[in-house]
Structures are given as structure tokens and as C-alpha cells.
Design brief:
The protein is α/β, with parallel strands linked by helices. 38% of the residues lie in helices and 25% in strands.
Amino acid sequence: MNMKKLLALGATLVFAAAAFTGCGGQQAASSGSGSGDKIVVGLDDNFPPMGFKDENNEIVGFDIDLAKEATKRLGREVEFKAIDWSSKEAELKSGRVNVLWNGLDITDKRKENMLFSDPYMDNRQIIFVKKGVTDIKDEQSLAGKAVGTQSASTAEEYIDGSEFFKSKTKEVKKYSDFVSAFMDLENGRVDAVIGDEIVGRYYMSKHPDTIDAVDVAVGPVSQFGIAFAKDNQKLRDDVQKVLDEMVKDGTVAKISEKWFGKDITLKK
């Protein structure tokens, strides 16, 4: 373990001890429903561009910017807390976090245990092509083409269940991550990549001269929402109110353009 990590660990332990002593061992966050309370946002801090650690080890991202602006308008302090994403519902129910705000799909099953905001973004799988390509306009135009996608992704699940991709495409290449797939696209090793719009557009924003998006959904479309504990209706409504204001005044669109190069958020 290097000196930087040792110092960070030491600082963390000192802070934890002080917090434990000062709060009598209380570990749960406040409900976050009162005026002036801190709002603790739970997230997976390795999900670019929604929420991730940058080169300075700071948590940044699209959802981070949304949450910062929303809590600022509420006059509330915000804390971003990295959690085990597989235990997110337990973290929320226990009160260790007040909000889950990190590209979370709204599903009927999750609605049984959590309150959700209105959806603010579609979670689509779309086609990405090399800059200048014009003959790929939709799923059917991938016939005879080499297609790339990420293993264990939503796109792979859809492709594996599609007879079209099994019988009509030249080949389907699977990659450990989308960055590798996009690099092969840039180098002409595949004709198209199918993947998460949010991930692909973020990559496009960093490589604007090499990649284009075909703005057509492939497979089913889900939607992202902000999740709250079942008994925290007030916080849900407070956040929804300022989020609606941010949509109306163009703030959400500007944040989307910053991270994706385009406004891909939902409008009411």
C-alpha cells in the first residue's frame, strides 16, 4: 500500500472515529425530509458518465451535476456515498442513504419497495457507426454487417435472442467493454456497435470526429428515475419539484449537452 493510500486510510479512520463518538454510533442518515437536512445520495461510483471518480478521485458525472443543482435549489447539503450497488434497496430502506440517483431503471418490481421520481431519461440501446457512414440507418440495415457489443450487456441479451442477428448479420463480436468495441469500430474491424446510448454518447463526446450515432432504439427501452424510501414522500416531492423547474428553465438540457453532446433527457 503506497503512502497516498495510507494517508487516505488514516484520514478515513480518524473521521469515522470522530463521527462515531460525536453521534453515539448513529450510522443511518437522517430522513432527508426536513428543511436544511443533508441529503445522502447513494451511487455506484464506477458508472461513467452518470457517476464516477475522475483523475482527481472526485465523484463527477451527469447525475452528480443534476443532484448538486437540485439540492442547491432546495437549500440542502448533499453527500455522495459510494455503495454496493447490489445492496442498494437495503441501503435506502435502512436510511444509510436517502436517495438512489445513478442511472437507475424504473421497474414494477422496484416500485414495490421504493418511491420513484418521474422518469428523466430513456435508457436505450442504439447503433453507433464510424463517422461518415450513411448506409446503416436502422436495425435491418445491419444485414451482412459485422456488429460489435459488450459481453453481459443489455444489448448482448437482446442480440442473443434475435433471429435476425443470428442469421442475417455477417458476425457479432463481443467485447469485455464498450471502449474496446468502439476502438475496433474506429479501426474498421466492425461496421457498427450496439450499446447503451448514455455510454456511447459519452464516448462520442470525447471522440467527435470518429463516431456517429444512429438515433433509433434497438430492442426494448427502459427509463431512469430517482429512487426514495417508501416512507419519504416529502423528499420525493421536493426533489421532483426542483427537477421540474430545472427542466423548464433549460438547466437539465445544458447538463445533458455537457456530458453527452446532446440533450437526451425527457420533457413533460
